[in-house]
Design goal:
Blueprint: H1 2-14, H2 20-32, H3 47-60, E1 76-86, H4 102-116, E2 120-126, H5 129-137, E3 144-145, E4 161-164, E5 178-181, E6 185-192, E7 208-216, E8 219-227, H6 238-260, E9 265-270, E10 276-279, E11 285-290, H7 292-301, E12 303-304, E13 315-316, H8 321-324, E14 337-338, E15 341-346, E16 354-360, H9 372-375, E17 383-388
Parallel strand pairs: 1-2, 4-6, 8-9
Antiparallel strand pairs: 1-17, 2-5, 3-5, 6-7, 7-8, 9-15, 10-11, 12-15, 13-14, 16-17
Helix pairs in contact: 4-5, 6-7
Length: 391
């Protein structure tokens, strides 16, 4: 380098015996002198040995007291899973609920996100233009956003790769899943599930998952957002939809593990797995016992759906006015309260992420004296947690 050459020239020009350059020249002159005769006593080390010894001394010498070696910092991010109930009008169900008051509810949903201010937001059921407007409204805070899962089957959007069984049929809608992030997205991958129940409305959607690799203060963090197969009383038996969910979780695990190179992956979204076993004889009220479906789902995912013991409900037909709309005329779900939304992880090769401050977000403060069905953004409550991953 030019600066180094100038520095050597300055030392050489000075010619001062005590300068580093003068000492180096003296060592070099000694090295170039004739070798000693046999029998002569040699007391001076050759220059290369002296330099090696000096280097070893520097390595082995203890650091001065108070000197700290910087450790690699474990990335910490806050994550929100939020089903915003912005259904497409192509489905018959959206003509009765889910498609009503969409403008007001999208505005209310954006307010909830701003109030909580998470680092990463996984949106489910963000199917329509109202949800798109909400995403644009949040873009200043969340400039890094994935495309909608299943909106395009290849060649469009900002996906790094496409996988799965994506349909281009005009009668099949997108999957409604997207990820918003404050941190840069280095990769974004799309999976449309191959497993689907043809007797449910989910079959008319490119349901799947988004997977992103974030750069969190320079460290890689993998996050997957998804929305699994739902149960439908008028469609396929619950035993069938439960089987499809497990197959989808296995797909997610294999795909995400391959893309991440085996690193742990944070998984967030509406997984439609009931955390509590419901009592069919009592308006499907929660029994308090953890459903066996959770352990099965953990096994299929290769990780944990619920690493924290969060007792609040994310789907509450008792306390959420929009959720109450889903009850049938017989009141079969009059007491239905459960947890369907999760922030968990795929373990991969470990170590597993750690989770703190997990809680269900309240809609308190959103009621401003108007129609609660418009002021409440969704039939689901959002879920938030802080996640620490290995550096």
């Amino acid at each position: 380098m030019k600066t180094s050459e100038q520095g050597l020239d300055r030392h050489a020009a000075a010619g001062t015996p005590g300068t580093p350059w003068a000492r180096f020249r003296a060592r070099r002159a000694a090295a170039e002198s004739p070798p000693p005769e046999i029998g002569d006593q040699v007391t001076t080390k050759t220059p290369h040995i002296a330099l090696a010894a000096a280097g070893a001394a520097l390595i082995l010498s203890p650091l001065p007291a108070g000197t700290a070696i910087a450790a690699e910092k474990a990335p910490v991010i806050s994550v929100m899973a939020f089903n915003v109930e912005q259904l497409p009008s192509i489905t018959a169900v959206a003509r009765t609920w889910g498609s009503d008051r969409r403008t007001e509810r999208a505005t209310a949903a954006a307010e909830v996100v701003r109030r909580e201010n998470p680092d990463v937001v996984v949106l489910d059921e963000a199917f329509n233009k109202y949800a798109q407007a909400m995403r644009e409204d949040l873009r200043k805070t969340y400039p890094h956003q994935s495309s909608l899962v299943g909106e395009h089957c290849g060649g469009k959007g900002n996906w790094t790769s496409y996988a799965g069984n994506c349909s281009n049929s005009p009668f099949v809608v997108n999957g409604g899943v997207t990820i918003l992030s404050k941190y840069p997205v280095l990769e974004s991958h799309q999976l449309v599930y191959r497993s689907a129940d043809s007797k449910t409305s989910d079959y008319k959607s490119n349901k799947g998952a988004a997977l992103v690799r974030l750069s969190v203060d320079g460290a890689p963090v993998w996050v997957a957002g998804t929305h699994l197969q739902a149960d439908e009383e008028s469609g396929s038996p619950i035993a069938n939809t439960r089987k499809v969910r497990l197959e989808q979780l296995r797909e997610l695990r294999a795909w995400a593990s391959e893309k991440s190179g085996g690193r742990p992956v944070i998984v967030a979204g509406d997984l439609n797995v009931e955390y509590y076993a419901p009592d069919a004889g009592d308006g499907r009220a929660p029994t308090g016992a953890v459903s066996g479906d959770v352990a099965e789902a953990d096994k299929a995912l290769g990780g944990k759906l619920a690493p924290q013991n969060i007792t609040q409900y994310t789907y509450d037909m008792v306390g959420n006015a929009r959720a109450k709309l889903r009850d049938d005329a017989k009141g079969s779900y009059a007491k239905y309260r459960n947890r369907l939304d999760y922030i968990g992880y795929i373990n991969g090769n470990g170590p597993a992420p750690t989770f703190t401050d997990g809680r269900v977000v309240s809609y308190d403060g959103l009621h401003k004296g108007g129609d609660p069905l418009a002021e409440i953004p969704s039939d689901h409550q959002p879920l938030v947690a802080r996640v620490t991953t290995a550096p």
